[in-house]
Structure formats: C-alpha cells, structure tokens
Amino acid sequence: xxxxxxxxxxxxxxxxxxxxxxxxxxxxxxxxxxxxxxxxxxxxxxxxxxxxxxxxxxxxxxxxxxxxxxxxxxxxxxxxxxxxxxxxxxxxxxxxxxxxxxxxxxxxxxxxxxxxxxxxxxxxxxxxxxxxxxxxxxxxxxxxxxxxxxxxxxxxxxxxxxxxxxxxxxxxxxxxxxxxxxxxxxxxxxxxxxxxxxxxxxxxxxxxxxxxxxxxxxxxxxxxxxxxxxxxxxxxxxxxxxxxxxxxxxxxxxxxxxxxxxxxxxxxxxxxxxxxxxx
Length: 279
Hints:
One of its GO terms (molecular function) is N-carbamoyl-D-amino acid hydrolase activity. This protein is an alpha/beta fold. The protein has helices at 18-34, 53-59, 67-79, 166-174, 188-206, 257-265, and strands spanning 4-11, 39-41, 82-91, 100-107, 113-118, 124-126, 132-134, 146-148, 154-157, 177-181, 209-212, 216-218, 224-226, 230-232, 238-241, 248-255.
C-alpha cells in the first residue's frame, strides 16, 4: 500500500433521468482522471434525482440495467481508475417491497463492482422552512455497514443522512476504514448549518480521512442542495473544499500516514468501555 493517494470529488447537479445523469457526470469524471486522480468519488443520487413519485418510478431501473451504472462501469474500465458511485437510485431487488435502494457502488479499474452499500438511515423530516422529506416512503433502508477494500486501505461507505450517526463511522473505523466516504445531497438549510461541522467531527472521532462529494444547486424536481464538497484530514483539518454549488472537480493528495499519526495521538478507538445508563 502506497503512502499517498490522489483523489477527486465530483460535485454535480444531477438531472432527473439516468441517461441525462450519465451525460452530466461523465465529462467531470474524465477531467478528474486526466488531471491524475486515482480514486474518483461522486455524490448521492449520481444516476438521477427525482422526488416526484410518478417520474421517479418511471426513471427507476434494476442496478444491472441502469444506463448510468452501466456507463460508469465502462468509464472506470476505459480510464483505468477506481470509481465510487456515491449512490445510484435503483430497484432494491426485494420482491415484496416496491421501494428503491439508495446504493453506493465501488467500481475497480476493470469495471467490476467490488462493493455495494445500501443507505442505512433514511431522511424523514419537516424542516423549519416548510420543506418536508419522507425518504422512507420511497427508499428501503439497508441492513449492513460496509468497508470496501482498495489499494489504499479500507474505505468506509456511508450516504448523506448517515453523517448524523457517529456510531456508524466509529464502527467503520474500528473495522479497518482509513477513508470514509460521505456522498450527499444535503438540503440547503441543514447543509449551511451543519455540513462542514459534522464532517470535521466525524474525521476527528475516527482519525480517518472523510471524503464528501456533494450535489449542489436547484434541481429539476425543485429541491435545493448545498454543495460545498470537501475533504477532511484525520486531525479534523479541511484539506480541500469547493466554496459554491456549481458542478466541478475537487482534487486532493492524501498522505495516508496521517491516519496512523492521528490515531496514535488520540487513541480513542481503543478506549471504549461498557457502562450503565440509569433509566
């Protein structure tokens, strides 16, 4: 395993169909690869973003038939890069449940999917500005945490709202994750208030690099997302960040030895103790 890793985070404003989603993200991935990225990460909802139920159902495909997933597998093989599709919205494959899966896909340089993760925590909320989200109505939650293997060590997989559950990130770190991906489509109100603070906290707590590619701007279905993709080091420092909502590419070179240094300096991952919680 090498001590350095060149990564790129892709920030998008994904359209409402998978074919359009692929056309939107492909040139950004090509740019990232041409500029030297070895591992490229895209946001939540890379294939399409559509919350209007009838249109969402019309855009939904099985993972193996989704135009964006198929195109991204071929693109990774063509470019010879590792590609984390932050998530694709695909049919869950559960016969008695019509809801979709919100699924991260790790693709190796041969174009093979080497790891899958279905979002564990779904976003059901009524925001102060009047926006209402019921992700549980359309997305089937996953059942298992996942650490994907890579040439640079374990990559813990999370998606968006998972960011608010620190025990998940801690479990990923203790299971071998040196990098943690947080692809997202954060709402503007919550993103402005909490996005950077939560990402830095998860990095500090785990002593891991946190890689957070985001959606940004106003989408075809009317939702507004925060953008501001960023990379956080294991000491909690912001290594690279976009300061806008526009589609783009964010590069960073990671010194992977920083993980061991941070965890040696604050060895909290080894200091868990059982405790009683009086009722």
